[in-house]
Amino acid sequence: xxxxxxxxxxxxxxxxxxxxxxxxxxxxxxxxxxxxxxxxxxxxxxxxxxxxxxxxxxxxxxxxxxxxxxxxxxxxxxxxxxxxxxxxxxxxxxxxxxxxxxxxxxxxxxxxxxxxxxxxxxxxxxxxxxxxxxxxxxxxxxxxxxxxxxxxxxxxxxx
Length: 159
Known about the structure:
Order of helices and strands: EEEEHEEEHHH
Number of helices: 4
Helix content: 25-40%
Number of strands: 7
Shape: rod-shaped
Largest sheet: 7 strands, antiparallel
Oligomer: single chain
Radius of gyration: 32 Å
Mean pLDDT: 91
Structural class: alpha+beta
Low-confidence stretches: none
């Protein structure tokens, strides 16, 4: 429920803009990062952000410079588990805390670990040895007079 231009209306989270005043009650998922301006026993579940499973109380009082620690901010995708509040939208979409985390995890370049490099080197070495031995047994088998099919069976047996 959003209060915009003095009128209450229900809109989707995509239509929220910074400065909108929204009402959140128990059971709602927060549609944006909000600054709590009025709360009544309001608690949120921040486990999707912090891993902390205990519901955290949110009040209008500013308590810490760290946005994740202060009690007057509630974050996008958190669940309201108790009470109700009125808050001002401060961030939406990719600018929310969750959006920043998603952007950071999406921009990580996957590099091979040292063990993966060693395993790949080992596999190439074993493959080269097997091919050399297989071809050698094929040539030796043909020199000793084995039929080409029997020599191929030696080759494939080694590989």
